[in-house]
Design brief:
Layout: H1 8-12, E1 24-30, H2 37-45, E2 53-59, H3 66-76, E3 81-85, H4 97-102, E4 109-112, H5 124-134, E5 138-142, E6 145-148, E7 154-156, H6 170-174, E8 186-188, H7 203-212, E9 216-219, E10 226-229, H8 241-261, H9 265-282, H10 285-295, H11 298-310, H12 312-328
Parallel strand pairs: 1-2, 1-4, 2-3, 5-9, 6-10
Antiparallel strand pairs: 4-8, 5-8, 6-7
Helix pairs in contact: 8-9, 10-12, 11-12
Pfam family, one: Glycos_transf_2
Protein name: Glycosyl transferase family 2
GO molecular function: hexosyltransferase activity
Length: 332
């Protein structure tokens, strides 16, 4: 464990009120972050606040020493750090870490940071939570980040473009025009469990839209940038452009389904058009059909509706026709 960190007693000595009730839950997800996790933990433990906070870490059955390092810190900070240490990898079984963390939060607010990123500003939580406490019209706050590689070398001083280093209103959040960096966000716990979330690939886009149902987003230029790490083990940074496009289409489709289910026709229509435009611009119609079936759970979601509208025999005929066209399409 790194030296020169404040003890648990020193951190808690500045807290006011009931120290057993954290105002903020720091949420951290890890997987094979042995080389990086101590940076993240240090970023949490340097926070200077006058309110209590907790640190909840979910590790998805890392195969390196990540869990050993987490246990070492938990032993030193037993009243601050709580852990969810998996023995079998949940992500490979289709279960996201957010589902395990959601029920563990005790705070009024949640602050996110994955185990390969880290915070640099000791006043980050105090600034963001202090603002949200004073401005109920805002539901989330954020700041910028610096991009570094696995060795800590700076690749870009600012991750966000200048157009996104600002506040966002509710409509911008709802319509997917806001870019909020995961490791920078602090937000009110307003969201309940959403059925569509288990199908969505790009959870950050969906999350920002859901935030827009409850308020605005505040950008804090006065907070020193966090560190966003690009490395071979990173899920998003190692994703190909083709797969990223697939993920966007998937996300827009399920956002359409969510807003449709909840009766918000304006945003249901927006995400339906966005999804269809992206599909039609890149993929032939018969591939769109098979993609919905195979990769977006379309058939399972709309099987009964399709049978009622087309009839079972007609539906089978369409399925066989599209499958036959797909088989006869020359491969590039």
């Amino acid at each position: 464990m790194r030296k020169n960190l404040r003890s648990e007693k020193e951190i808690m000595s500045f807290w006011q009120g009931d120290v057993s009730k954290p105002l903020v839950s720091i949420s951290c997800t890890t997987y094979n972050h042995e080389k990086f996790i101590e940076d993240a933990l240090e970023g949490f433990l340097i926070q200077e606040t006058d309110f209590p906070f907790e640190i909840i870490i979910h590790d998805d059955a890392s195969t390196d020493r990540t869990q050993d390092i987490i246990k070492e810190y938990q032993y030193a900070y037993p009243n601050l750090i709580r852990t969810i240490l998996q023995t079998e990898n949940q992500y490979s079984e289709g279960r996201k870490p957010g589902g395990f963390l959601f029920s563990a939060y005790q705070g009024k607010y949640v602050a996110n940071c994955e185990g390969d990123d880290y915070w640099t500003d000791k006043d980050k939580l105090q600034i963001q939570v202090g603002f949200l406490e004073q401005h109920p019209e805002y539901v989330i706050s954020c700041h910028d980040a610096t991009i570094i590689d696995s060795s800590g070398n700076v690749l870009s001083k600012q991750k966000l473009p200048s157009s996104c280093r600002r506040d966002f209103d509710e409509n911008e959040l709802l319509s997917g025009r806001a870019w909020i960096l995961t490791m920078s966000r602090v937000y009110r716990r307003e969201i309940s469990r959403i059925p569509e979330s288990k199908y969505i690939k790009n959870g950050d886009t969906f999350f920002a839209a859901l935030m827009g149902l409850h308020g605005k987003c505040k950008f804090h230029p006065e907070i020193s940038p966090a560190m966003y790490r690009v490395h071979d083990g990173g899920i998003w940074s190692s994703t190909s452009q083709e797969d990223r496009t697939d993920d966007h289409i998937n996300t827009w489709f399920w956002m359409y389904r969510y807003f449709k289910r909840t009766g918000n026709e304006k945003y249901a229509d927006l995400y339906f058009r966005r999804c269809f435009q992206q599909l039609s611009a890149n993929i032939p119609l018969y591939v769109i059909f098979t993609t919905f079936i195979k990769r977006m759970f379309f058939f399972n979601s709309f099987k009964n509706l399709a049978i009622r509208k087309l009839g079972l025999n007609r539906l089978r005929s369409l399925r066989d026709s599209f499958s036959d066209r797909l088989r006869r399409t020359p491969k590039k």
